[in-house]
Each structure stands twice: as structure tokens, then as C-alpha cells.
Input
Amino acid sequence: MATFNVIQEGPVNALALNRDNTQVAIGGRNVFKVYSIEEDQFKEIYNLRSSKHLNLSFSCNDISWSSTDDNYLATAATNGHVCVWNLTKMGKAMQEQDYQEHTRTVNKVNFHSSEPNRLISGSQDGTMKYFDIRCKTSVATFVSNTESVRDVQFSPHTPHTFAAVSENGSIQLWDIRRPEKCQHQFTAHSGPVFACDWHPEMTWLATASRDKTIKVGIEMSR
Output
């Protein structure tokens, strides 16, 4: 197996592959680039931090690449911004949306796997936001009643469902049509939950925590 690397200007906090794994987006406080993955090298094709008009919304805490359109990326910023990027545009116009609705660091962004305009975010402020990326403001806000939301993931099985995991060890399932209350809540870990992901075929969720455990097989009805 061949390995190769490329040196960056600063630490890289996040990366995301496009849907056919031919490109990778990387991001950090001082880095935001897109590379094509060649046979023996990474080839830089976009440097989104090259603009003279930089601010903290260019600082990436997380990146999500659209599963339906390779031209769209979303980023979570340390200043609470959620940004949507259109790679077909030039210069400052690449930043197609700059949502400034979270009050603390955004930890996670996630595009829906089949609905191209659906995006969710989870923040240190304890809320989640649901966006239609064609609109200038969020569609709905979900309040977790926990210290912070560390990860959010749309379900690939039920189009209106997403999972959220939190600092207090809880797992919540939400319906984007009903932001007033989560549909299910579980305390699955004795420490903060940092990541979650859905099984691609079964209605199961996996979670990973500081308590040194990974929980798999929390089956949810459709």
C-alpha cells in the first residue's frame, strides 16, 4: 500500500472525503483546502483561506461534504458560525451561506445523505440547528438541555430523523418536523460522548465515549 503526505501551515482538525473518494477537504484554524487524491500524491485544487478577507468563520472545527453534490461543503467554526461553500464559485462568493446563530463553538455539521439541501449542526451551546441551505436562516432549533452537543448524524434509514450525542453521556433522537421535544433519549455512557454514526443497512447507532467504551446495536424502530 502506497503512502504519501503533504505538509500544512498549521494543525488539521477535520477532513472529509467526497462521495467517490477522489477528493479530500481538510480544515483547521489556519488551513482550509481541497485536494484531489492522485495515484502517488495529493494535488491541491482549492485553497479557501487564500483570501485577504479572513475571519474566524474560515476556522474549521468540522467539515461535511455533500453526499449528493460534490460542489458543496459545510464547515463548523469555532466562533459559532456554520458556513456553506460552493466550489463552483470564485473568491469570497465561494462562501454561499454564513449562518451566525450558535452562541458558542460548533462541534459538528452533517449533510443529509439523500436530501441535498438538508444540513444540521451541533454546538457547544447545547443546541442543534436544522438548515435548508437555500435559505438565509435556520429552519428549526433543537434544545438538548445538556452541556453541549458533540456530534449529530442524520439517519440514512428515516429521512426526518437525526441522532445527537452530548457532553453528559446522553443520546437523543430527533424528528426535524418536531423541534419542541426529542423523540427518544438514553443515557448510554458514564462520560462525554464524542462521536456517533449509523449502520448503513440496519437501524442501529454506534457511539464512542470518554468512558472508554463503544456502544453498538441500539436498535431504533423506523
Notes: The first strand starts at residue 14 and ends at 17. The mean pLDDT is 91. The chain has two domains: 1-143, 156-173+181-222.
